[in-house]
Specification:
single chain, 6-stranded parallel sheet, 3-stranded antiparallel sheet, about 45% helix, binds nicotinamide-adenine-dinucleotide
């Protein structure tokens, strides 16, 4: 029995806060995956939450039965997981860090209301800039670091394995490898962590044309911007990352996923959230892994942390406990 289960959390219920593009798509994807029986959508725009809940409910009879409704924080109180998707959205190639102040106010509001309602489960943060918002949610809730998880670079990592899959003609599920650091411009595509059938990239590509790794890293980093340019927002990729994190928690999988978590000395870094491979189970983040990186990757990770630390220092008010 893990802490949040022993606190009475209902593992059959997920609360999705923010019923915009990301929240509605996440709720739909959660319903299709049949992870829980109850999905409550909460949004300050109640008409939107009601419409999205009704639309998703229409799919129920043809998909997996689940109760999907527009509710409020009282409905979230006993949920096992609360997913925070309410936040400032970016336009075109706008840096995610530029919406930090707007998102921090929204995420703080959502967390305060969750705590006031008695929520004691696990918080999954998707709002951008996600590493900063994970820290805001952590500080604001007073929860343990294990209980507050950012979607982080899980999406970027899935973009990396997908891109490598096309280049190397290997199924993405058969490629391990991580994008680490900030979910944003300073992220680090850690090619030294890539393994295909136990082989490193160098070993796998020996005697063949080497993939253009800097070009792949750029493509992965800029993929979100390209999607936002085309359709105005991104939704399916992040929604699937949300589902994957919820699945690992609800099924107590002990799965290794790169997610944003509070660092406490890993690579000499602390007091900020960024993505490293983490073991995720019923208690949330059960262990942070510290893979051996190349010197350039380690320097990139430290630089990424420096950018996040500077952004945290510039936030008003500071992401501290509730006031
Ligand atoms: P959106 O504008 O479509 O939806 C945001 C919703 O939040 C709106 O419906 C709004 O009414 C609601 N909201 C605002 N303040 C609220 C509050 N105080 N309480 C409850 N609801 C509130 O935006 P979107 O496209 O769904 O994006 C949502 C967030 O997710 C943004 O911050 C975006 O940058 C981020 N995002 C993250 C990733 C990722 O990989 N982590 C990917 C895509 C988008």
């Amino acid at each position: 029995m893990t802490s949040h289960q022993s606190l009475g959390a209902n593992l059959n219920r997920i609360a999705v806060i923010g019923a915009g593009h990301v929240g509605a798509t996440a709720a739909y994807a959660l319903m299709l995956r049949a992870l829980v029986h109850e999905i409550v959508l909460i949004d300050s725009n109640t008409a939107l939450a009601e419409a999205e809940a009704a639309d998703i409910s229409d799919a129920n009879a043809l998909a997996r039965p689940a109760r999907v409704w527009a509710g409020d924080y009282a409905d979230a109180a006993t949920a096992g997981i609360a997913v925070i998707t309410a936040g400032g959205a970016t336009q075109g190639s706008q840096d995610r860090l530029s919406v930090a102040a707007k998102s921090a106010a929204i995420v703080s509001d959502c967390v305060d209301r969750l705590i006031a309602a008695g929520f004691a489960g696990i918080i999954v943060v998707a709002a951008n800039p996600v590493d900063l918002m994970t820290l805001v949610a952590l500080r604001r809730s007073g929860f343990s670091a294990a209980q507050v998880i950012g979607t982080g670079t899980l999406l970027d990592t899935s973009r990396l394995t997908q891109t490598l899959s096309q280049t190397l003609r290997v199924a993405p599920a058969s490629i391990e490898g991580f994008v680490l650091g900030e979910h944003g411009n300073s992220e680090v595509a850690a090619f030294s962590t890539v393994r295909i059938g136990g082989q490193t990239l160098d070993q796998f590509c020996r005697g063949e044309a080497q993939p253009d790794l800097p070009a792949i890293a750029r493509e992965v980093r800029d993929a979100g911007y390209a999607i936002v340019e085309g359709k105005g927002y991104t939704s399916f990729g992040v929604a699937t990352a949300i589902v994957r994190i919820c699945e690992a928690i609800l099924r107590d999988e002990h799965a290794v996923l790169p997610v944003s978590t509070l660092l406490t000395g890993e690579y000499g870094l602390s007091d900020l959230c960024l993505s490293l491979p983490c073991i995720l189970g019923a208690g949330g983040v059960e262990r942070i892994l510290v893979p051996a990186l190349s010197p350039a990757e380690t320097a990139g990770l430290v630089a990424s942390a420096g950018i996040l630390a500077a952004a945290i220092a510039g936030m008003e008010p500071a992401p501290n406990a509730r006031v």
